[in-house]
Every structure is written in C-alpha cells, then in structure tokens.
Amino acid sequence: MTLRRSATRAKSRWTLLVTAVAIFSLALVTGALAVHDEGVFQLDGNAIVDTSGDTEPQNPVSDQDGDHDWDEVYADHLDGTTTSGATAIAFFDDEFGQGDDILVGGGTKDINDIGPSWLWKQTAVTSVQDKADIEHAYAAQYTSGEDELLYFGADRFSNSGDTVMGFWFFKSEIATVGPDASGNGTFTGNHTARVVDPETDDVISRGDVLVVADFRSGGKAPSIQVYEWVTSGGSASTHLDQIGGSEDPAGCTESPPEKPNGEPIPPVGDGDPFCATANQFEVQSPWPFTPKANSGGMAGDGGPDTLFGVAEFMEGGINLTSLGLADQCFSTFMAETRASHSVTSTLSDFALGGFGACESGITTTPQAAGENIPAGGASIGTDARVPVTDLAEIEVTGTSGDFDGTVTFYLCGPLALDSTSNCETGGVQIGDPIDVVGTGGSASLESDEATLTSAGRYCWRAEYSGDEEVGVPPSSDPSDDENVSECFKVNPVQPMLDTTAGADVTLTNPITDTADLTGTAKQPGDDGIGPGGTINATAESQEDADGTITWTVFGPDSCVASGLTVTGSPATVSGDDTYGPVSATPTAIGTYYFAASYSGDSPNTLDVSHNGDCSDSDQEVTVTGTASLTTAQDWLPNDTATLTGDTNLTGDLTFELYNDGSCGDDGGTVQYDETIEVNDAASGDDFSTSNGSDPLDTFLVTEANDGSYSWLVTYVDDVLDSPDPSCVEVTSITIDDDNTD
To answer: Which stretches of 298-348 are DSSP H helices?
Structure first.
C-alpha cells in the first residue's frame, strides 16, 4: 500500500440543533451543491478526465461537471505533483488472489472498535470471493467554496455479482501489525468518537465516518448509508449513528432499471450530499489492472489498452459540509468489501493506509525580551542571567476550523558554541504544557521563560500534541536532526584589562604595575535544571568570575621578555577589581614595559591581555643610574744613590725598602728591592730606583699601609773597597683619603 499526504483539515466547533438520533434529518446544510455537480470532480463512471467531444464511454446523463478525475489523483500519487487539485489523496495497490491480506475473526466488524477487536490474515491461497477482491483503493478531498468534498473509489478483480463496499475515514492513525509466522495480524489505533457537551447537547467534535455503498452488477444505482462513530447510543448500533442515506438508490448518474423493461434510475438531484456510481461500459484504467478472464475487461499497464469490465470500477462522494462534517481531519483511509450493507456484516478484503487530510506543522522562534534573538546570538551579560522564551506558531493546512491540544517546550543546552546538533530529542522541559486555541488554521503561543546562566549554544523543541478529536495529527519542531532554526547562541562577555605602571626609578630600585579588570561575568549557576544546573538557577548561586592575572616585564629597551621575576604575579581574580601592585627589580638601566593577561573564566568570561606588543606608553618605566667621585692617594717611593771613588766604579748597587724606620731592626721587612749593575761609572754618578716602571713589580704606599719607611743601600765594588751599607733615608708617611663632602 502506498500513499501521498497532502494538505490537512481541522475541526470547527458547531452546535447541533437536534438530538443525536435525529442528526441526519436536520444536519443537511441548505444551499450546498450536490457532491456530483460542484464543478470539481467527475463522478461519471470512468477514471479519466473527460472533456467535450471525448470518445471515452461514460454513464448516461453525465454532464462531466468537474475538472478532475482519478487519473490525476493517480499521477499525483506517482510523482507528487498537484495535478488533481486535491487537498489530500490516497491511492493503494492491494494484493489480490493468493497472498492477499483479508479481514478475519468474529470481532472484525464495523460495529466494533478496531484496535482491540479486528484481526487480519495473509492468505496462502485465494480466500475471498473474486467479486469482493480489491485491486486498488483511492480517495481524495477537495475544497469548493465553503464546501468540503470527499471522494472515494475502488476497483475489483471480478464483476460476477453485486458487492457491498465500506469506506472508512479515520481521524486517528490506524495501522496493521504483522503478520506473524502463521500469517496472522492485528491493528493498532482506535476509533475517534463524536464528542457532545453533556449539558447543552452541543456537538464539540465529530467522529470517524463510514460510507457503505451497495455496488450492483451491470452498473445499477447503488444505495448509500453514511455513519458516524459515537461512544454510545448510535441509531444503527451502539457505536454507529446513521447520519445520512437509506436503501434507496443514490446514483451520481442515470442507472439501468431495477427490473427488465423498467424505467432507468435518475441521478440524485441538485443539493444531494452523497452519491456513487459504477461503470456501465468497459472503460480504460489509468493504472495497471488485471480483470478476471470472464469479466469483459482487459489486463494491461494502464491506458487505452487496459480496461475495466462493467461495474469493476466503483466511485462515489459525500459533501462533508452538507452532512455537518466540514473542517474535519482524517488521518487514515480504508476500503473494505462486505457481505451486505448491514452494519454487522462480515468483512472480507481491505486496503488501508494514510490519507493525510490533516497535517499540522509547528515552527519555533527563539526570543529574548520579546524580540527575536539575532543570528549572532545574545550576550550572557555581566550578571550572567539571560531570560529567553520560544515563540511557537502552529499551522494546520487546508482548513479554517478551530482546533486545540497542547504544546510542550523543551530546551537543550548549553552545548558547545560550535556545535551543529539540534534538540530533536532530549533536553529539559520548560514549564507545563500550554493549551492551544487554534482558529483559522493557525495558533501562536509562547513558552514559559527560561533563565540561562551559562554561555553556549541552545536549541528549543516544541511538541504539539495534535487534536485527536478532530484528527489534527501531532507535530514537532525540529522534526529531524537537520533543522537548526530553533537554535541560538549565548555568547560570553569580553572583559577589559587596563594596567598602570609605577614611577620611573633608579637602578636597584623595584618597578611596579597595577591592573584594573572590568566587565567580567558571573559564573554559571548550578542549582537549576539542565546540564550543570545552569538553567533557571537562583541568583544567589552565582559567584564572581575567577581566574588569574599574570604580568610579564619586557626590556630593557626592547619588547623581549626581560626574564625578571615579577613578585605578586599571578594574582587571583574575584570579579571586577584592581589587582596589584606587582614589582620587579631590574639589573640594568633602560626602558622596561609591563604586559598583563587575564586567563578568563570559561564559559562566561573570555580571556584578555594588555600591552603584549609594548605599544602602551603608560606601561613604560625608565630605570636610570647615578655617577659618583672618590679619591685614593698613594705614594710611589724611589731612592737615588751617588757613587764616588778613586777610579771608575764597577759593581752591584742594591736598594731595599723596609716598612719601618730602621731598615729591619724594628721588625720591618723588605717591601721593594732593586739591584743596579754599575759598569765603569765615573765617580759622582747618580743611580735611582725604577719602582713603578713595571706594573707587576710596583710598590705603592696608601692609606692602608702608611707609616715609617727606610731604604737600606748597599754597594759592592768589583775592584775598590766597598762602602758600608747605608740606612739613612727614613721617611714617615701619613695618608688621609677622607672623601666626605
């Protein structure tokens, strides 16, 4: 079975003016056109759109009043086009013969609810009559002015007798389960019943609809009955209330007489809300069809060479508005063959699938302070409390009726800012489900407020419950894992860090710096809901931003790290404040530069740095040095000796300087000595010491060693008699190097 979902319808609140038992007699809306002459759909006994001059056979007295037919519905089913103009369609291929799914079991009757009672079986061999074996089933819903029109049809394997068909339109989703290993299956889903206000008897919403049509051989006029599912007190059975039809013929076209030589049966008159017909001639099938060999049809893949035998093609329609069923939504369509038109009839073959006459869609838009959150996101702010809501808009397409239900909101996050996921599942519920009051096919409502205390990415999800009473299905945004229109960002704040260097100093004195940190955000709360308790946390649970500020000194005279130790760095942060001063002691003169960086406090506060490029002149500190003058007096002692003799002199002249005034007799020692070789010197020549000429052999008298000094001079001549050593040069030296100003 296959289907295509199209536009949807929703319920309208209307007041029933009579008791439930008498609905049919007074529910018809005067002035509405008959279902067969609305100018929308051709109920003319064939499946092809006919225009004037067509050669395609059609039933007599058919004015072809309509722009569409089943061939267009089939085309839409195949390729998803909108040629048919319908607001919803269904087209099912049903197995026939061996392997067909058929209805079985004593509880499988129209008078019983489906889910708990109905059974089906996949046959190993043919097990229904050929005339009741469905090959295809189809339905379409149209809007014409203020009228809602519902068309249905089926084709069968054989025309070897009459067949009674039922066409169910369910508001809730009905589906098969199975088959099991033995070929047995069940159903899920239940009937939706009419809802009546117990105090006023006003009808609040309508129930599932069953149309029973008695299609007869030869294309004779069928009879139609229309039933509505009720909780109790139905006119036809406990749960089935007849709201239209009788055993009288209700053909859409002129039909063959009931008896030989009798009068043909005329079509229903203008304003009649329902009718049905079957083909009185062999007509072409737009889709693949296989007739039984003796039916007069022709098997094929669809088109002029594929023919329905007489009365193998069946169609009909009801005017929902005329029956008081306008603005109803149907989710599932089922065609069934029956043993009779009795509501307790045994059921045979069936074809089941989605109809999609009602669809809902919900879209969400994240908001803050009543405005849409911009694409770039919202800021967490310094107090780290961002109130957000979600605006949900529900659209029920194809109807202007009222609908209700509830919307439940969920919020996922905080996620990573670069996350691409959405909130298709999971999250935390924000508030209680909110009631929907929908009219004109739309509704708008806003979630409870959620207060976010953590930066990150968030995504809303809104789940609409649908309105089961009128068949509006549920919907959700997002409905898959790709849509991210309901996601938004809450961005961290960027704080400010400003630093101020201390005064210039001279070398050996410390340089200093302080930092002013502003614009930090509070930390996320942790006693709310969601990951980490960050959603709807109390204000008291949020602490100031933490982290550290670290200083670096560059220089001297370059933006290269100095390597100096900064005392007081790093400093521990607790929110906006002034931190420092910190200090460092330079070892060289020049210009130094302070730079500072704050580590930030993820996720709410970003990191920040200042003067990492040494461009802030306020962060420069100049270190200078001072010049000074001191004196230290010293003496360079030397001695001169004069040699005289009877002849020229040759020998050794030795000078010894003692650090006392007695040439060592008082314990002094030699501080400097020098021997001069005398070579043929004339009498009276002078010979002097050279103390100071050799830097490595120089003796100085300073403040540290001043006092009495004496020279011991000895001459030894090689020829003449040598004089006695002389110790007569005694000097007392006092040095005062006082540099005090």
So the answer is: none
Lookup result for tokens 């614009």: 519
Distance CA 632, CA 5 (A): 112
> What is the model's pLDDT at position 733?
83
Q: Is the peptide bond before 581 cis (omega within 30 degrees of 0)?
A: yes
Q: How far apart are alpha carbons 35 and 147 in whole angstroms?
A: 9
SS3 content of the chain, % helix, strand, coil (to 5): 5, 40, 55
Task: Name the helix (H) or strand (E) containing 166.
Answer: strand 163-170
Mean pLDDT throughout 256-275? 88
d(CA 82, CA 79): 9
The span from the CA of 455 to the CA of 602, in Å, is 9
Mean pLDDT of 722-741: 79
Tell me whether strands 371-372 and 475-477 are parallel, antiparallel or unpaired.
unpaired
Please report, for residues 34, 264, 286, 301, 584, the alpha-carbon distance to residue 46 in angstroms, rounded to integers and kept in the order given.
Answer: 19, 19, 10, 17, 100
What phi and psi, each to the nearest 5 degrees, are found at residue 218?
Answer: 80, 0
Instruction: Please report the sign of the dihedral spanned by the C-alpha atoms of residue 346, residue 352, residue 357, residue 361.
Output: positive
Strands 88-93 and 3-4: antiparallel
Which tens digit of pLDDT belongs to each residue from 19-35? 333 333 334 444 455 78
Q: Which of these, 472, 497, 491, lies nearest to 404 by C-alpha position?
A: 472
Quote the pLDDT of residue 369: 86
Q: Tell me the pairing of strands 313-319 and 147-156.
A: antiparallel
d(CA 306, CA 298): 5
Q: Model confidence over 192-244: pLDDT tens digits?
A: 999 898 999 898 888 999 999 999 888 899 999 999 999 999 999 999 999 99
Q: How far apart are CA 256 and CA 60, in angstroms?
A: 9
How far apart, in Å, do the first and last CA atoms of the chain sit? 117
What's residue 696's pLDDT? 82
Cβ atoms < 10 Å from Cβ of 363: 16
Please give the residue that has the higher pLDDT: either 70 or 330.
70
Q: At CA 111, angle to CA 109 and CA 115, rounded to 5? A: 70
> Which residue reads 């002034």 in tokens?
578
Domains present along the chain, CATH in parentheses: 3-354 (no CATH), 360-491 (2.60.40), 496-521+543-624 (2.60.40.10), 634-733 (2.60.40)
The predicted pLDDT at position 740 comes to: 55
Instruction: Return the ∠ at Cα 494 (arms to 488 and 496), rounded to 5°.
Output: 165
Tell how far CA 726 is from the center of its chain: 114
Strands 175-177 and 184-188 come out as antiparallel
Q: Compute φ and ψ for 559, nearest 5 degrees.
A: -95, 50
Which pTM does this prediction carry? Answer: 0.64
- Of 24-38, 52-66, 338-352, 681-695, the least confident: 24-38
- CB burial readout 179-218, b (16+ within 10 A) else e: eeeeeebbbebbbbbbbbeeeeeebbbbbbbbbbbbbbee
SS3 readout for 685-721: EEEECCCCCCHHHCCCEECCCCEEEEEEEEEEECCCC
Please, how many CA atoms are within 13 Å of residue 202, restricted to the half-sphere of its CB? 7
In what helix (H) or strand (E) does residue 318 lie, and over which residues does it extend?
Answer: strand 313-319
User: What does residue 654 show for φ and ψ, rounded to 5 degrees?
Assistant: -115, 130
Q: What is the pLDDT of residues 66-122, one digit of tens each?
A: 889 999 999 999 998 888 999 889 999 999 998 999 999 999 999 999 988 999 999
